[in-house]
Design goal:
alpha+beta; 49 residues; two-stranded parallel ribbon
Length: 49
C-alpha cells in the first residue's frame, strides 16, 4: 500500500456456516479489510482487538 492511500475500513463478518464466510469474504475483500468469525464469542474477541 502506498503512503498516500488510506487504509481500508474493516468489516467483521459473523456466521456459523463456513460457505457463507467464504462467500462474503470474497465479495468484500477488495473494498474492505475482512475479519471472519464463526461464532458470536469469536466475533466479540475480534471486535475487542
Amino acid at each position: 500500500m502506498s503512503a498516500d492511500k488510506e487504509p481500508l475500513p474493516t468489516v467483521l463478518v459473523v456466521d456459523d456456516a463456513p460457505a457463507n464466510l467464504s462467500l462474503l469474504a470474497g465479495l468484500l475483500n477488495k473494498s474492505y479489510r475482512v475479519k471472519l468469525a464463526p461464532s458470536g464469542a469469536k466475533a466479540l474477541e475480534l471486535a475487542r482487538r
